[in-house]
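Exercise 7. Given the encoded structure of a 296-residue chain, write a plausible sequence.
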């Protein structure tokens, strides 16, 4: 087992050794806050700034990334794990600079992967011909744990919420579960679907104050995305708003968020990136169990 893990680490270092690779997980406490749309638009904004972006997508149905971009996705990372498909048959080109890797089925079976399947996962990812500069992980909400193991594996976790009471409550519950259950202390907060930036800042101030007092966690405000008609129209067209309506307020906000993301201080220990993410994902998926922690 030790030799196998050593081979895993060496292979990932060789295949994904980009010093500047950034892996950012996006999570939400409930449906309806626009998390997946925010991920898609941030990916497009990063691509328009010259970055190669990979979206690791755990969602299915109308909210998956392929549907948001209006492109077909026929396979899943599980096909790579089972050695049924090569990675290039699973990757989906959404637009220049943005690729999608559907992974809903693969994530559900992570805790049951044997050593051969774990090796297939690592070897399969190694087939990626064009390395990514940024990996955005779009987690699903409907887990028995209340959160995805993908949300624990990455050092950067962005919690997306909207300006409603239920969304704020559920976001706090998610932070509480990750904090008390798995000792996560740092989260970034993105407020979506707001009318005015001041509203988003007030929401953040309130949740940050409560979290600091009760959970002893650090929340960092990354900004907000205004809800405008251009954003809705772009979604109906299955296009990123930064491409379809680049002068819209939401497009300007997303470009700013994308630029800021590239300059976030790197968290965690040296030697992170995709190597650490995949190893953490395999490690945690074998060990996490449903938690009795509830919001309060």
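Solution.
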């Amino acid at each position: 087992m030790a030799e196998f893990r050593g081979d895993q680490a060496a292979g990932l270092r060789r295949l994904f050794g980009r010093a500047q690779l950034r892996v950012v997980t996006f999570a939400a406490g409930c449906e309806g806050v626009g998390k997946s749309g925010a991920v898609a638009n941030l990916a497009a904004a990063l691509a328009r700034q010259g970055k190669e972006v990979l979206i690791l997508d755990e969602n299915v149905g109308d909210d998956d990334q392929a549907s948001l971009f209006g492109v077909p996705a026929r396979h899943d990372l599980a096909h790579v794990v089972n050695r049924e498909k090569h990675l290039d048959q699973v990757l989906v080109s959404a637009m220049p600079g943005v690729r999608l890797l559907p992974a809903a089925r693969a994530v559900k079976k992570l805790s049951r992967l044997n050593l051969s399947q774990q090796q297939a996962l690592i070897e399969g990812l190694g087939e990626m011909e064009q390395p990514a500069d940024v990996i955005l992980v779009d987690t699903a909400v409907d887990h028995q744990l209340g959160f995805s193991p993908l949300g624990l594996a990455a050092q950067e976790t962005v919690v997306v919420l909207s300006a409603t009471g239920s969304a704020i409550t559920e976001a706090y519950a998610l932070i509480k579960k990750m904090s008390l259950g798995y000792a996560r202390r740092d989260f970034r907060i993105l407020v979506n679907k707001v009318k005015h930036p001041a509203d988003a800042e007030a929401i953040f101030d309130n949740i940050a104050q409560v979290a600091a007092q009760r959970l002893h966690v650090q929340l960092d405000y990354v900004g907000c995305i205004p809800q405008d008609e251009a954003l809705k129209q772009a979604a109906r067209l299955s296009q990123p708003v930064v491409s379809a309506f680049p002068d819209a307020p939401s497009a300007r906000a997303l470009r700013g968020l994308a630029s800021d993301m590239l300059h976030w201080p790197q968290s965690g220990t040296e030697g992170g990136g995709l190597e650490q993410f995949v190893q953490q994902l395999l490690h945690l998926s074998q060990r996490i169990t449903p938690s009795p922690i509830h919001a309060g």
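Remark. Confidence is low (pLDDT under 50) at residues 292-296. Students should compare their own answers with the one above.
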